Amino acid sequence: MQTTFARLLLKHAAERPQDAAMREKEYGIWQALTWADLATMVEHLACGLHAAGLKRDDHMVVVGANRPRLYATMLAVQALGAVPIPLYQDAAALECVFPINNADVKFAFAEDQEQVDKLLEISPQCPLLTHIYFDDPRGLRKYAEPGLASLETLLDSGKAFAAKHNGFFKAEVEKARPEDVAAMFFTSGTTGNPKGVVHTHNSLLNAAESGASFDKLTSAEEVLAYLPPAWIGQNIFSYSQWLACGYVVNCPESAATTTIDLKEVGPTYYFAPPRVFEGLLTSVMIRMEDAGAFKRKMFSYFMTVAKKVGPAKTDGTSVGVFDSLKYALGNWMVYGPLRNNLGMSRVRVAYTAGEAIGPDLFTFYRSIGINLKQLYGSTETAVFVCQQPDNQARADTVGIPCNGVEIKVADNGEILVKSPGLFKEYYKNKAATDEVLTEGGWYHTSDAGFLDAHGHLKIIDRVKDVGRIQGGVFDDAMFAPKYVENKLKFFQHIKEVVAYGDGREKVCVMINIDFDAVGNWAERRNLSYAGYTDLAQKPEVYQLIKECVEKVNADLSADTMLAGSQVSRFLILHKELDADDGELTRTNKVRRGFIADKYSALVDGLYAGKTEQFIETVVKFEDGRSGSVSATLKLSDATIYAPVKAAA
Fold first, then answer.
1. Are 308 and 262 in contact (CB under 8 A)?
2. Distance (Å, rounded) from C-alpha 83 to C-alpha 95?
3. pLDDT digits 0-9 by tens, 529-538
4. Which has the closest alpha carbon to 150: 109, 118, 115, 122?
5. What are the beta bridge partners of residue 45?
6. Which of 327, 473, 478, 518 lies at a CB distance of 3.0 to 4.6 Å from 513, suitable for a disulfide?
7. What is the DSSP string of 572-596?
């Protein structure tokens, strides 16, 4: 797609000015913003920023949740030939210092008082940051810091500038070229400082158009924008594809109302990471456990029918008349109300990515008539590398290469990608760029995998994380930590897992339970507890988790390549892993090395054969205060199984 974001905005505003471009829920009421009004807002913001000193190729950070004015600000920055950099709104203040200084940022958009306070706190460490514009004025009336102003003030100055310089905005839009830099996204920084991933209009819009044509997306789609704008996936689904297709993006009132807003909007195109789908299913199963005997039996019976018939019907495969009748009855009594309750009654295409999704979870959604599929990509590839066709969705693969994408597998098993959606470079980091981008245009993904007989890509793990067991029963066996972690996370009672084993004689894991799911399980068994730490260390909970671990071990024993990755010992952590404590990235990826150092006493205890270990951990609360959590954790053994020999 040879165009730019600002040109697409003006195109939609000219062709259908009164159609809704975005909706925002405020004070419980959905309010629409038309394409014409959005274009006017963007023009005034652009003129105001120009008058304030924002120049072509400058960088401006935007920090906040999905809001029309945040999107309009990004468009205004792009219209001037400058580069927007969205940052995670839940990031601690110090996490913003490196991106702001690395990109020489002078201008910032802050959604509300929380984000303003964050930027003002680090302003002494960011001397170039001189202009901060806020959207929500609540709590900011008496702030008088130099360079701090409301977005209303910026809009007013821009409106006055536009009146005096008629044609300025459109002239600036016309100067931009598709190969110009359009946005920069900072990686999650799993192993060090984050890297600024530079994308052009071409790379983002080509990826967006490829995905849109694959799933036949039109301007009639409805999308709910609820994930962080700083995440490339959210940007593609609710920004790049929004402008490429011209559909409506709906912004929820707050994170707390997302589930309600999802039901009200009824999106036709939906994306969520596996943890969201897991959370929705867990809430359904908890409610069903609390339902009456008749409802439970009806649900159980029709879900059995759905698992047998549903995936085939979703794939468009014909089934018998009797099965079709039973499924139709189930759709009327169970599946339809369930889809409506989940807010997915109108979903035509649903995607998940980022982590592997459990086969049972995947089958559940497809069984009840939700066209859930997987895709594969990264920040550097503008998301779209592989997608699953409607009738070829499988839980163990991530689909076939997207249009225009080439894939090959290196000798060490690493997946290499060539695509129009590839990033331009890592900002100010030529060494890192040269490390992953070869002269032939191939991007080294660092993921290990292979293409199966049907041309579908299957991901095993990160190349650097695939190791070997040294000594013990499975000496020199392959160890794939992410594969093991994901298999355990498929169980509804397990929320997070960290696996260790490379260079060691056995595999040990640390587990976070899902507090809601295990709490409901405990309450139904009259098992009292005083909080997460107390519940996690109950003998009954350890037995529950041990059964999950041993089921995974039984599955792994049948895999000739990964039988050695069976878990020998495990423990349940006394606290949930948290990004604020540095244990997870802002995209909820486990920082395995950091956790190994922080909880070295627990790792050593697991490998030393101890049965319990005391641990005291410093934690950071949401208001910035620090505290500590301590407990004596149980360390438990799990049964491992002899590898199952393949049939001759």
1. no
2. 20
3. 999 999 999 9
4. 109
5. none
6. 518
7. E-SS---GGGTSB-TT--B-HHHHH
381 vs 461 pLDDT, higher one? 381
Cα angle 203, 205, 206 (rounded to 5 degrees) comes to 65
Query: Please, which contacts does 589-597 make with residues 24 or more away whose CB atoms are closer than 8 Å?
Result: 589/188, 589/190, 590/485, 590/496, 590/497, 590/498, 591/190, 592/465, 592/481, 592/498, 592/500, 593/191, 595/498, 595/510, 596/498, 596/500
- DSSP annotation of 647 reads P
- Tell me which residue of 395, 393, 418, 424 sits closest to 405, measured CA to CA: 418
H or E element at residue 601: helix 600-608
Confidence of residue 50 (pLDDT cuts 50, 70, 90): very high
Instruction: Measure the CA dihedral 47/48/51/52, to 10°.
Output: -140
Q: What are the two backbone dihedrals, phi and then psi, of residue 498, each rounded to the nearest 5 degrees?
A: -130, 120
Domain 466-637's class?
alpha beta
CATH of 5-242, one of 3.40.350.10, 3.40.50.10940, 3.40.50.12780, 3.50.30.50: 3.40.50.12780
Q: Quote the DSSP letter at residue 529.
A: -
Provide CB contacts within 8 A for 6, sequence distance 6+. Answer: 42, 75, 78, 79, 173, 176
Is pLDDT of 407 > 90?
yes
Question: Is residue 471 pLDDT above 50, yes or no?
Answer: yes
Nearby residues of 606 by Cβ (< 8 Å), 6 or more positions away: 500, 508, 510, 569, 570, 571, 635
* Predicted local confidence at residue 148, as pLDDT: 97
Give yes or no on whether 5-242 and 466-637 have one common fold: no
Residue 629 per-residue DSSP state: E
Query: What is the DSSP code (8-state) at residue 396?
Result: T
For residue 293, what pLDDT is reported?
Answer: 87
How far apart are the C-alpha atoms of 544 and 496, rounded to whole Å?
Answer: 15
Give pairs for 372-376: CB < 8 Å, separation 24+: 372/277, 373/349, 373/399, 374/398, 374/399, 375/211, 375/351, 375/399, 376/457, 376/459
pLDDT of residue 35: 98
What angle, 0 to 180 degrees and rounded to 10, lies between the N-to-C axes of helices 35-52 and 68-79?
60
* DSSP label at residue 96: G
Measure CA 68 to chain center. Answer: 21
Superfamily of domain 274-461: ANL, N-terminal domain (3.40.50.12780)
Taking a C-beta distance cutoff of 8 angstroms, is the pair 399, 388 a contact? Answer: yes
Residue 587 burial (CB count, 10 A): 20
Q: What is the pLDDT of residues 475-484, one digit of tens each?
A: 989 898 988 9
On average, the pLDDT of the chain sits at: 92
Show me where the domains of the chain are located. Answer: 5-242, 274-461, 466-637
Check whether 48 has a pLDDT greater than 60: yes
User: What are the tens digits of pLDDT across the range 120-176?
Assistant: 999 999 999 999 999 999 999 999 999 999 999 999 999 999 999 999 999 999 999
Q: Quote the pLDDT of residue 379.
A: 94
Over 50: is that where the pLDDT of 643 sits? yes
Q: What pLDDT, on the 0 to 100 scale, is given for residue 202? A: 97
Alpha carbon distance 269, 299 (integer Å): 27
Determine the length of the chain: 648
Please list, in sequence order, all residues whose beta carbon lies within 8 angstroms of the beta carbon of residue 46, skipping any fewer than 6 positions away.
76, 77, 79, 80, 158, 169, 172
Of the ranges 104-113, 357-366, 624-633, the best mean pLDDT one: 104-113
Closest alpha carbon to 420 in 449, 381, 392, 456? 381
